[in-house]
Amino acid sequence: MQHPRPGEVLFTERTPRVVAARKLQRRRDRDAARRFLVEGPQAVREALGSPAAPGTRSPRADQAAPSSGAAGRAGVVELFVTPEAADRYPDLVAEAPSVSVVTEQAMASLADTVHPQGLVAVCEFLDVPLRAALASGPGLVVVLAGIADPGNAGTVLRTADAAGASVVVFPDDTVDPYNGKCVRASAGSLFHVDVVRGGDSLACVGALRDAGLRVLAADAYGAHDLDRYTDDGGLSGRTAWVFGAEAHGLAPEVARAAHARVKVPIHGRAESLNLAAAAAVCLYASARAARRPAAS
Amino acid sequence: MQHPRPGEVLFTERTPRVVAARKLQRRRDRDAARRFLVEGPQAVREALGSPAAPGTRSPRADQAAPSSGAAGRAGVVELFVTPEAADRYPDLVAEAPSVSVVTEQAMASLADTVHPQGLVAVCEFLDVPLRAALASGPGLVVVLAGIADPGNAGTVLRTADAAGASVVVFPDDTVDPYNGKCVRASAGSLFHVDVVRGGDSLACVGALRDAGLRVLAADAYGAHDLDRYTDDGGLSGRTAWVFGAEAHGLAPEVARAAHARVKVPIHGRAESLNLAAAAAVCLYASARAARRPAAS
Question: Which helix (H) or strand (E) holds B225?
């Protein structure tokens, strides 16, 4: 057993396993270990694959089997917990394969937040190859192309999950999905969808087209208005949405490779929408079209 | 003239007018002066009411006249600018009623961002009373009830503008719309819509009902599904959306006072949407319903 009994010494920020885990805050070390950190009770519970909280739905259960490395346990290797959090979340401690009880200071060194909630799990990478993710025939796919802000990327991942997307792709030109801020902003959705990590954005668009998806580039200067495109049936089939960086938009060659460039209409005097808002509008337009095909 | 000629001394962070302006970073001092700070070339341009950039639309021009304190000049009192920014943005310097050229250090003390862009304007408050804002008969109103995060509030303000809302209400239980982070996140939209500041959330809902608007509470546990509500014509008339805090949602008495509690459907396994995403989906549902009433 890793965790001290009453009276035993707590692990500190200098204990080698704490030091090793802390290194996972850096992408280089994550890539070497193929492990990442998950923080806080909600995310740790998702990572452990605990029974969903009441009210949580899982309509994708039937799709999850073939390709999903994300379904069920996400490969928690170790749980670091403060004594206080261990008392507060006995279910999580009981489920973890290995538990290390640490000082508040060690927790602060592992955690990414200002007010850590006393739990950090080391998890194995859970991304799946694009080919495997596409093998299950997903109806809604999201590609994050060239997004540098981890909070934005995590938020769109969360929204994609809520809108019913089952695959989210983080190509090489986008922030690491295992970045602590991205994991946190995803609010557990990292564990709900098939995450694809790496690869070239342009090659990804090609693979999506080859898999029979209609690829739509969200583009503030796109030729197609989202509402009209929806009315014309453009969202009626299996769709992949490609979202680019907030400031510069999609790389021109990526936008050109899509079947269509679609813009969210601006009705007022705002110059544009931010990425998270634009993605929410596009993805829920697809979700609504899938729900009532007659109206789309 | 306030600004030094070549060879003259630049204002420093200890110059009294810089010190006075810096105080506007605090709400208490903003309230006393009824002035706030606007940072960066884009926002300063909006504040000055400069001609819109190419591609910017202003379909609300016809609505703006009766009540809008937001239309046209927003009451820039003074512009602080570094020598470099003065060279770069001569149009903004020319338009400002009073210009103070300051050191980089003084600019850093005035600016809220890590990498200030060399321009900070002092503006007069531009909010309008709720009664005045409602007198113009707005078709889409947004109420931010109990939102503490200025970035979230500013983002929803931006999205509201993009979706065609013409009034956004910040009641007393919500962050100050003149908070620097909120101003920045609004990306200029603070100057595009009628902003109402202060007042009680519940009283605001009452006033909106009295003004003939259908008041909808965005509520993750609402009885009405947004898609079905839209299909049933619930969004066909003049609408006010009320959004609450991300963590706790709307205060029960505020949600109860609305005509209906509407939830954005969750199709995947996400527990919820974040505030900005949920607001984008709701407001664009209204925008779409207004655009093609036959389908709503």
Answer: strand B224-225
Q: Where are the alpha helices (DSSP H) in chain A?
A: 16-22, 27-33, 41-48, 61-67, 83-88, 90-95, 104-110, 130-135, 150-162, 180-185, 201-210, 226-231, 252-257, 275-291
Residues of B in contact with A60 (CB under 8 A): 268-269
Return d(Cα B164, Cα B290) in angstroms, integer. Answer: 10
Q: Are the beta carbons of B277 and A278 separated by less than 8 Å?
A: no
* pLDDT at res. A54: 37
- Mean pLDDT of the region A182-194: 95
pLDDT over threshold 60, residue B296: no
pLDDT at B261 over 90: yes
Average confidence (pLDDT) over B27-37? 97
Contact A276, A163 (CB under 8 A): no
| Token pair listed for B133 | 């804002």
Give the number of other Cβ atoms within 10 Å of residue A293's Cβ. 11
Q: Shortest Cα distance from B295 to chain A (angstroms)?
A: 8
In this predicted structure, what is the pLDDT of residue A7? Answer: 55
Residue of B nearest to A220 (CA): B55
Q: Are B211 and A287 in contact (CB under 8 A)?
A: no
Report the 3 state secondary structure along A100-156. EEECHHHHHHHCCCCCCCCEEEEEECCCCCHHHHHHCCCCEEEEECCCCCHHHHHHH
Runs of H (alpha helix) within B55-211: 61-67, 83-88, 90-95, 104-110, 130-135, 150-162, 180-185, 201-210
Out of B59, B270, B278, closest to residue A161 by CB: B270
How much is the average pLDDT of B7-31?
Answer: 92
Please give the span between the terminal C-alpha atoms of chain A, in angstroms, as a whole number.
57
A274 touches chain B (CB under 8 A): yes
- Asked whether the predicted pLDDT for residue B49 surpasses 60, the reply is yes
CA distance B244 to A285: 23
Share of chain A above pLDDT 90, in %: 82
**Buried-exposed string A115-150: b where 16+ CB fall within 10 A, e elsewhere:** ebbbbbbbbebbbbebebbbebebbbbbbbbbbebb
Sign of CA dihedral B57, B60, B66, B71: negative
Q: What angle is formed at CA B269 by the lines to CA B264 and CA B271, rounded to 5 degrees? A: 60
| Residue B279 DSSP SS3 | helix
> Is the pLDDT assigned to residue A5 strictly greater than 80?
no
At B244, list the tokens: 């609450």
Residue B188 has which token pair?
């200029």
> Is the confidence at residue B52, as pLDDT, over 50?
no
User: What's the pLDDT at B187?
Assistant: 92
The arithmetic mean of pLDDT across residues B164-179, rounded, is 97
**Residue A56, Cβ neighbours under 10 Å: how many?**
15
Greatest mean pLDDT range, A175-184, A285-294, B3-12: A175-184
> Which residues of A are less than 8 Å from B266 in CB distance?
57, 162
| Residues of chain A with C-beta less than 8 angstroms from the C-beta of B152 | none
The count of other CB atoms within 10 Å of the CB of residue A224 is 17
